[in-house]
Amino acid sequence: MRRLLVGVLLLAACGGSGLASQATTTVDAGLVALGSELYQGTCAACHGADLRGTAAGPSFLSIVYEPGHHADAAFVLAVRNGVRAHHWPFGDMPPVEGLSDDDIAAITAFVRERQQIEGFEE
After folding, report:
1. How many Cβ atoms from other residues are within 10 Å of residue 112's Cβ?
2. Which stretch of DSSP H or E encloses residue 39?
3. In the 8-state DSSP scheme, what is residue 104?
């Protein structure tokens, strides 16, 4: 069962088709607020308080991070396992310690809501 779950997550992270690649749609203001707090404490130093990136990491408002290319599962995999640099010249992203699955879901909900509000940049 675990292999199946890992396989589904990998397909989703690569923008595979099906339900696993769909973006999180949330109307849960509490989840988004928690995600905002967690994002500011763990992600903003590299990805920017406004999600527009820094000298240390890319913007989450880039079209590269739209749900059809980087599904929600990609955020989970990046936090858990780190990411090898493949779109950007920032270097590899290390795993992020200390975040639960619920924390990652909240951060993802926050990022997806901001993407819907701000739109994507080329």
Report:
1. 22
2. helix 29-42
3. H
Instruction: Map tokens 């130093």 to a residue.
Output: 45
Tell me the Ramachandran region of residue 73: left when phi exceeds 0, alpha when psi lies from -120 to 50, beta otherwise: alpha
Q: Please give the structure tokens belonging to residue 97.
A: 């310690």
Helices 29-42 and 101-118 pack at an angle, to 10 degrees, of 100
Q: For residue range 13-56, list pLDDT tens digits in order.
A: 444 333 333 444 546 999 999 999 999 999 999 999 999 999 99
Q: Tell me which residue has tokens 């997550």.
A: 9
Structure tokens at 18: 């099906």
Are 109 and 116 within 8 A, CB to CB? no
State the Cα–Cα distance between residues 112 and 93, nearest whole angstrom.
20
Single-letter amino acid code for the residue at 53: G
Token digits for 74? Answer: 């990609």
**Phi/psi class of residue 117: alpha, beta or left (left: φ > 0; alpha: ψ in -120 to 50)?**
alpha
Q: At what angle do helices 72-81 and 2-13 cross, to 10 degrees?
A: 110
